[in-house]
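Example 3.2
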Amino acid sequence: MLRDLLAAVADDPDLLTLLREQGGGSSTDAAWLTLLERAAARGEATAGAVHPRVASVPMMLLRGEYALRGLPEVPDEVLTEIVDEVFLPLVRGRAIDR
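Structure, written as tokens:
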């Protein structure tokens, strides 16, 4: 269904707005940013990892699994890979070079 909705956005730009509003949007992003801020305070993430783009990575990858692969549910192995192989290395190693 998500794949079909994403395809329909090309014909109906208002649908994209609706999807953003219904998909969690800023409240979900705020929750991930809070998680990153707390991890940075404990020394488990770099301060540079506290960034909206970094915070969006896990959910974007998960949405990609649903939309692109057409899976009805994401296997635990994929969730583990998203966290262990992508997200944790990103937040632990992102430099503060700005």
